[in-house]
Amino acid sequence: xxxxxxxxxxxxxxxxxxxxxxxxxxxxxxxxxxxxxxxxxxxxxxxxxxxxxxxxxxxxxxxxxxxxxxxxxxxxxxxxxxxxxxxxxxxxxxxxxxxxxxxxxxxxxxxxxxxxxxxxxxxxxxxxxxxxxxxxxxxxxxxxxxxxxxxxxxxxxxxxxxxxxxxxxxxxxxxxxxxxxxxxxxxxxxxxxxxxxxxxxxxxxxxxxxxxxxxxxxxxxxxxxxxxxxxxxxxxxxxxxxxxxxxxxxxxxxxxxxxxxxxxxxxxxxxxxxxxxxxxxxxxxxxxxxxxxxxxxxxxxxxxxxxxxxxxxxxxxxxxxxxxxxxxxxxxxx
Length: 334
Ligand code: KG4
Ligand code: ZN
Hints:
Structural class: alpha/beta
CATH architecture of the largest domain: 2-Layer Sandwich
Strand content: 15-25%
Number of helices: 11
Radius of gyration: 20 Å
Helix content: 40-55%
CATH superfamily of the largest domain: ATPase, nucleotide binding domain
Distance between the termini: 29 Å
CATH topology of the largest domain: Nucleotidyltransferase, domain 5
Strand order of the largest sheet: 3-2-1-4-5
Bound molecules: 5'-O-[(R)-(carboxyoxy)(hydroxy)phosphoryl]adenosine, zinc ion
Number of domains: 2
CATH class of the largest domain: Alpha Beta
């Protein structure tokens, strides 16, 4: 069988990313993170779009070069159509459309979170269905039942802030840089996770939903009342509270749906305590645990191409160049 050569493009937020896949094999995965936002303590959408405009052509060329191919070798293009920042999504989707139109090849619009969900299978093709996926990023926190590569169901999501947003907001409160998650993770290693009892929102409500806005408020009041609190202990205790809820709800979903495998995806899945806790809990239960490598956890184009490669295998050849960007969150696939 001829394995298609697919160029994938991802520009949903503040990373400009391109990847080339031969079938399901990743030949290149180039990611350029925009550090221009660091000065502002958060992403500035207008600046993000401008950086994508600057970066998109060089990043695509770098991905093609690393894969030792040219545009004329391509069989299809895949691109993120949403959700994300509209101005950022438009840059990637228009670049992809223009190139696909010029080459006369199919174009696969891919949902960003659906791509995160299957990054576990990109990392480890032996990962078995059904599986539970915890997708935790700066914009999303959901527990999803993966039935197959074509079918999934969202079991629960955050009611307010995403887990990454909670990390970022707390980091800002204690005076750390953006994005805050990696800073909190680093400082937490030297702190006592049991020093401060922060709230674990919706921990025992019986659903698979989350709430992190109370945690942020509680940290704000704690810092007001304890201005000399050791920052390491605050970081360790906040991280422990977030990880406790994420792990306990994901394990509950695995138990109720009788799955033998757990996957974590999205930027927050890089968190060292989260990975260690899942590895320990899954090993106790003889369950498979897959945590994709960091370049498949953060926003990347390989995961976008992977979803498209499966659709190509099933015989899809979409030639509709009129699709538009979309903001809708993750919905069940069927
Ligand atoms: O998936 P991602 O790269 O971008 C989207 O939000 O789509 O996720 C970024 C988020 C940020 O909130 C960042 O603080 C968080 O992931 N993050 C972490 C860690 N590394 C990144 N949070 C906790 N611990 C980490 N080690
Ligand atoms: Zn993402």
